[in-house]
């Protein structure tokens, strides 16, 4: 039903046009964000998940709520396994 994040792997940097690849992904993200109401989607997901939330859902939910309050442009997730970045919030 959509994408919560985009992971650019090492192959992005090893290709023949790494800067162009990242620039293109950035333009795609910017365009997608102009037509998607993230705040509304988050509220629907939060209602669906309900209480109690799993630890990972709680951390992701708090990050999203904080980002919305301060009008952050992005949430950056550092992860070794990729699990934290895959939480659907």
TrEMBL record:
Gene3D superfamilies: Phosphoenolpyruvate-binding domains, Pyruvate kinase, C-terminal domain. Coiled coil: none annotated. GO terms for molecular function: magnesium ion binding; potassium ion binding; pyruvate kinase activity. It comes from the Eukaryota. It comes from Aegilops tauschii subsp. strangulata (Goatgrass). InterPro entries: Pyr_Knase, Pyrv_kinase-like_dom_sf, Pyrv_Knase_C_sf. PANTHER family: PYRUVATE KINASE. This is Uncharacterized protein. It catalyses: pyruvate + ATP = phosphoenolpyruvate + ADP + H(+).
């Amino acid at each position: 039903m959509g994408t919560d994040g985009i992971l650019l792997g090492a192959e992005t940097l090893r290709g023949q046009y790494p800067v162009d690849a990242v620039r293109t992904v950035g333009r795609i993200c910017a365009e997608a964000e102009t037509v998607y109401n993230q705040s509304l989607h988050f509220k629907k997901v939060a209602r669906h998940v309900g209480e109690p939330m799993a630890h990972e859902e709680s951390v992701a939910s708090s990050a999203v709520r904080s980002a919305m309050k301060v009008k952050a442009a992005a949430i950056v997730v550092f992860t070794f396994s990729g699990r934290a970045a895959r939480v659907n919030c």
